[in-house]
Amino acid sequence: MSQTAEPSLSPARLRRLLVACRRATVLVVGDLMLDEFVWGKVSRISPEAPVPVVWVQSESVMPGGAANVANNLRALGAQVRLAGVVGADPWGQRLLKELTRRRIGVSGVIRDRTSPTTVKTRVIAHHQQVVRVDRERQAPLSAATRTRLIETIRKQLEAVDAVIIEDYGKGVISRELLGEVIPLARARRTLITVDPKEEHFDLYRGVTALTPNRAEAGQALGRELETEAALARGGQELLERLRSDAVLITLGEDGMCLFERSGRRTRIPTVAQEVFDVAGAGDTVIAAFTLALAGGASMPEAAVIANRAAGIVVGKLGVAVATPEELLGRSSRLKAQGSRLKARASSLPGPPSSSRAGAGQPPASSHI
Hints:
By secondary structure, the chain is an alpha/beta fold. It contains ten helices and 14 strands. Strands 1-14-13-12-11-10-9-2-5-6 form a ten-stranded mixed beta sheet, sandwiched between helices. It has a four-stranded mixed beta sheet with strand order 4-3-7-8. The longest helix has 24 residues.
């Protein structure tokens, strides 16, 4: 397996890819959620228990789960369609309203009285998350609802360039659904990528690419991938096991590692300057990676774009998105930094010539 450094991606090349991405249509299939944020401040500890008292100042909601992937795609300029299930409840109605406001297609979203909408409420004070409250019911879809969902996905596939499977393990993604969707996408030569759930790995055979984090990849293989050698073996094993074109393993502060069927392995260092909140970063990775591929990027280029997008969103508080303008700004800054480093390196004195080497010093070509 050959290893390469991060590929060059100039601002001009990135701009061309981002323009092409605006012509792409992506279908997101998966577990839909609503992220609720309660913003406030803390000035005292409760007399009833050793917990902070949060004085609420504002509240907001954002699409979460697979809906957040759709929101990330839309922010990057894509045409987006969504397929999933929400409850016939006020939370589901509010999520659909938020998605429609963002011009995300929701004709593939089914309202089901037996599947309450998943809601994650985060209480944030002084730029820190104090507590998270989850309201959800993890259960497989009924046979009737699953059949309806598969049928709507089948119709949506006729007019999309890529499909993203966003598996949060809440019940939408199942063996039966993937058994229908993956062959349909492959028959149409449609890109299909997966943000996986570790216990479902064997259901993803034949997809274009997966984007697990290090822990998910390790759990799928039954061992830790903490060393560089273990990571290299693990990525290759996942490729062979799933017969995919690529596996992009995210490594947190260590960046990413892309494994391709050709045998090429590309290591991409992190570009995050400050980390405020990692919530939703995985959603940003698969959205940017898939959309870049749909826009004509190579696998390594798409991974670089995903890495830069993730670096932007972790610098924001709460579930966030990256925009084309932010990506272009980050790309220009990275190019300027690289130019300054090159200029600094060229101004440093070179190594002494062999005629000036001190006594007892080996020549430059020696191996020691």
